[in-house]
Each structure stands twice: as structure tokens, then as C-alpha cells.
């Protein structure tokens, strides 16, 4: 009995897309990743450059690993609808419409690890919490190709899926790479609101809305606000433009999107304490940026509406305990026409807030 076939059948029965790849990545994707890091395209995500060679070769940490079973969980969820009440402005990337996807993966990875042992081998699962280049392994295993939007694209399911890996001790032979089906299409490149896609299959995180709204800890640069548009958390613009996602409607069985995550009430980011925020959004991707940065993002989105009807919420931001929120509120107030309130923030005890208020008012002329 071929252990790989048994593991594949079990994984697919659990709803995953699957692909096998040797543990040793060929040099081209390794060199491309090194060049991407050397070029600073990872922006402020310093963790991506730590233990670089171990990230590119898991056998350095686990000498017994010979192959990688890549698992893809589809998340092309239907819109669950907008809940009643609250301030429901802004968009959230589709993968974040459910509670912790790590928790959904965990029992399946544990079961597959146990099956590896039963089959006479070893296995160790990872989903987003280890230094593993999942996308490179998925492409190496023929699951799909890396598109111009830097996403892995599956010919039948598009790019709306989350990747996990199972490192195993079983030998596997290389398979032919999946043909790149992007052709001459550059729709994703044109759809990126901040020009983060050079079109060569890489991403410049320094200009990526997802980076700025999720990973970045400070102020979002004013020159990027228009590009952020109505994206509250993450961005799916390049995926929405991709023709391979036109028919993407599959998602993991038993997982349903949460309306409060797909269309959150922005007022919660200004009225909840950090602890209450953690309770309300427990297990969600919102915990990565946390209350403060979600409030920051909300202020950018509200300012981009140019609708003074939202000034009451922006004024709450101007009184927030955190200077990052107050500084962002200063510019939002100016853009929504409340220069008088923004002027008050020029006297804020935190010099960063005062400086941002001054710059925002000067930009108005």
C-alpha cells in the first residue's frame, strides 16, 4: 500500500485540494525568494527574513523530512449579508470572514500526522505558523501556478484558498509543473489600487493594502489612503479581477462566513476596550492588528467616503487613548471638513499626533 496514496485519499476526503512535492526546493524559487527579501519587498515583515535558509529548506530543522503534502482549503464564501444596525462601512478580505482558520485545520493535521505514524512514517503539519514556503511547494507539486498577482491559482478553483502543509518522511518524485495559464492577461496588475504588483509573479508589500491594513504598526501614509479606498482589512482586488475566480464558489464544507466579520460594526473599534475587543473577535483574523489598528483602518475608510455623516465616529477617534488612532483621526477630520476639531489636535500632548494634525491641515491649503 502506497502511504502517499492513502494520505492523499484521506486528505481529499476531508475536503482539501492536495499536491505532493519533494522537501528540497529547486534553486530558482529559492533564489527568487532571496532576491525578494534582499530588495526589501517584504516591507516591515522582518520575520520573513529570519532563519532564511531554514525557511527555504525544512530538512535543516527536521532531517527526516523527505516530502511535503500541500493542503488547500477553499474559502470562496458567499457574502453572508450585512447585519442590521451599527456603522457597516468598508470591506474585509474574504479569508477573514470566518473565525480562526488555524483551529479548523488543527484536527485534520493531527489526524494526518497520526496516519503517517500508522503507515510507518513521520509527519508534522503547519498552517501559517511555521517558516514554510507553502506557495512554492504547491506550485512545485503541480497544484497550480503562481499568477501575476503573486497568488497560487488552481485551474478549477481559482485562488481563494488557504494553504497548509504536512511534512512527511515518505519519498516522492518530482512532478511536471502546472502550465502558467495567465497568458497575456494583466487584469490583476491594473486592478491593484496601489501598484503593488509588478506583474512578474511577485508582490511589493511596501505598496500592498493588505500589508498596510494588517501588518503595519504605525500610520498609513497619506499618499496611500486613496488606494486603500474602502478596504478595512486586507484586500481582494487582484483576486476579484482574476478571470480564474469568475466561477469560484467553493468553500470548505461545514465552514460558514460570519456576517459580523464580513461586515463589522466600525463603532466597536472606538467604543470597546482592548480586552472587550479580544473577547468579541476571539479567534478572528482581526486580533492580528488588534483594536487600535482596526480603529486606524476604520478612520481611513470613513475619510475616504468624504461623507460628513461619519464625523461623530471620527470625533470619537480624536479622543481615543491611543496616539495612533488620534493621529489618524486628525487627517480624517480634515478630509471630512472638520478643520476646527483637527486644529485642536495640534495641541495634543503626544508630539506625533500634533505633527500629523499640522501636516493634515497644511495639506488642505
UniProtKB/TrEMBL annotation:
It holds the Pfam family QueG_DUF1730. GO terms for biological process: tRNA queuosine(34) biosynthetic process. One of its GO terms (molecular function) is 4 iron, 4 sulfur cluster binding. Keywords: 4Fe-4S, Cytoplasm, Iron, Iron-sulfur, Metal-binding, Oxidoreductase, Queuosine biosynthesis, tRNA processing. Residues 173-202 form the 4Fe-4S ferredoxin-type domain. PROSITE patterns: 4FE4S_FER_1, 4FE4S_FER_2. SUPFAM superfamilies: alpha-helical ferredoxin, ARM repeat. It comes from the Bacteria. The keyword Iron-sulfur applies. The keyword Iron applies. InterPro entries: 4Fe4S_Fe-S-bd (IPR017896), 4Fe4S_Fe_S_CS (IPR017900), ARM-like (IPR011989), ARM-type_fold (IPR016024), QueG (IPR004453), QueG_DUF1730 (IPR013542). PANTHER family: EPOXYQUEUOSINE REDUCTASE. NCBIfam families: tRNA epoxyqueuosine(34) reductase QueG. This is 4Fe-4S ferredoxin-type domain-containing protein.
